[in-house]
Amino acid sequence: MNAVVRSFVASLPSPWVSSLRQLKAKAVRTAQMSWQQRHFVPAAIAGEFRSRVVRSKIGTLWFVLHPLAMALIYVLILSEILGAKLGGVDKPGAYAIYLLAGFTGWSLFLEVLNRSMSVFIEYANAMKKINFPKVFLPAVVVGGALVNSLLLFSAVVFIIIFYDYFPSIHWLGIIPAALCSIFLALGLGLTLGILNVFSRDVGQVMMVVTNLWFWMTPIVYAKTMISGVALSILQVNPMTPVVTAYQDAIVYGRWPDFSSLAYPALLATGLMVFASIVFWRASPELVDAL
Amino acid sequence: MSGKPVVLALQGVSKSFTQYRSNFHRLAHWLGLPVGPRSSADVIRDVSITIHQGESLALIGQNGAGKSTLLKLITGTMAPTKGSIEVTQSISAILELGLGFNMEFTGRENVRHSGGMMGLSPSQIDALIPEIEDFAEIGEYFDMPLRTYSSGMQARLSFALATAIRPEILIVDEVLSVGDAYFQHKSFAKIREFRNSGSTIILVTHSLGDVRELCDRVILIEKGAVVRDGPPDEVIDYYNAVVAEKENAKLSIEQRRRKDGWLHTEFGDGRARMRNIDLFRPGESSPVQLVSVGDTLEVMSVIEILSPMKELVIGHRIVDRTGHVVWGTNTHHSRQVLHDLETGQVVNSVLRFECDLGPGSYALCFGLHTQDTHLNDCYHKAENQIVFEVINTNRRFFIGTSHLEAEFTLTVDEPAPVAAYQAG
Prior knowledge:
The structure holds two protein chains of two kinds.
Chain A: H1 2-11, H2 14-36, H3 40-53, H4 61-81, H5 94-122, H6 124-129, H7 136-162, H8 174-198, H9 201-215, H10 229-236, H11 239-252, H12 262-289
Chain B: E1 6-19, H1 23-30, E2 39-52, E3 56-60, H2 67-75, E4 82-87, E5 91-95, H3 107-117, H4 122-136, H5 151-162, E6 169-173, H6 181-196, E7 200-204, H7 208-214, E8 217-222, E9 225-230, H8 232-247, E10 252-257, E11 263-268, E12 272-280, E13 290-292, E14 296-305, E15 309-320, E16 325-330, E17 338-341, E18 346-354, E19 360-369, E20 378-391, H9 418-423
Parallel strand pairs in B: 3-7, 3-8, 5-6, 6-7, 13-20
Antiparallel strand pairs in B: 1-2, 1-4, 8-9, 10-11, 11-20, 12-14, 14-18, 15-16, 15-17, 15-19, 19-20
Helix pairs in contact in B: 3-4, 4-5
């Protein structure tokens, strides 16, 4: 096996071999360093949660309350006042559940996106003073967001039980969708986050963009209500299948269309590769600009 | 020293901060497109330093010379643009204040948080916390939010945390200057303890006294390059001359090591010259090199005026082996400034003093300048011009650099007469 690898390496052009060797040495060093400093990630996540509680009474609960309050507002306005109904489901509260399902999916995506855009600025102090592997930062972002998402999820479960909905095996279908949205957000967020260090306008623009993106995703309305150009926008939006998977599981109690997740998964992979390249090239300059 | 293993090797390290025409150019450059930076500012230029285990090294230089950047490169928080940095051992760095402390957390929470981010496990931190709390000596503030701390208290906490575990290489960047005298003393003791246990120390400081006390090697950085690298007295005296040079226009700096090991540094703009200077016992005609504690001595100087000047101040200093100033003053402070001197005039100066110094080797320095220090116009100045030895022949034994008239008074009280009381 080793001989095969060696002969393969020998057949490569020599500049490739030397940069591959460098890459391998760098990877080994990063792995050693990561293992030595593995306590960084839990300490940083714990620190983030502690910092949320430190000056507010219910601290981290706000993350749960915020989407719940948003869902409540939409339920009141759209369902109670405008009399919106969800096609295909007759159960009471179906629209409210539909909203909650969509919000749960969207908020995970949004948190990872927003946090990875600002993580370099938030951790500027630590990056300047402590030498740690920079890959820890995305890990901190994802770890924190997952904890928050689980909290929101438990709140949602609690609420839907009131409406006579119950968790089922189909909820496992949410996991691949969640993974897709995490990596989509991470790939996009890290690239933009690096740019954000050099120009804070990026963060401001993205606030508008994410707002627009929210409305281009079938969260408040159902995909079946849409036609024409708007529908083709929905089909281009990689978050559409992700959110739909949440709704399929929670509202309709069925398995999501896994093949529809291929598109966001592929896009997420591409964005992650792109982000890694930018990250690798930019990291020497990153600390200089902080 | 060279027998010890190398712990840190910098080879041809340069660091430049780049600027691009726009962020699109920057992004394009990262993606490998042929777009170069518009300009780059070199902060560190071609620095090569090899540091062996157990060395204690100071980086000195003026503000903006690149000392802190160099430390960041060594610590690894910044990447060099060119060159290589090889580190073989664990580094603990105290760069500026705080170690990434959170202002809202208490001292204890910050220790957990930052300690974890430094790579310590929760159980390790729990074991270290009593020691850290004890060393920082900030009392009940340890459980109060950091925003209520003074900068000195923050320095105490960060120093206590960074030195909780003995690192192989300890990097300290000007943190010590914030603490009060007591804590500075304590931190020095800790650093010395680390040094004696074999840690390598790298210190950035503006306090040259600290350097002489703690370090056996000094590197002078100027404009991002290593200008001098050597033993403390050599580099510090050169640095002082450089500082004076910045203030004065035309100076020539001369430096040589005397046969007796003292380093002689001489510089000045040449408008006045010390033609002759020596140390005498009053009334004797040949200079002395060996004196007794309490001798009366005279420093006789002959100064030539080489170009007309408004003002001349003559100053003398006595320093000990480590370069600490034992005593010094000048004619500005004694209100004997000479005014309006002409070319060709010769000034004779006699400084008489009681040599109440402790036994040891001392050096006499002089300065000819204007106003109160040589940082103004400096005509001629020399460090360690005359070296003399003080021995104790007629006083009781004592240590230190100063002889004080001191006397013990002892009394012994008899035990209290308990038995008599009982009998009564």
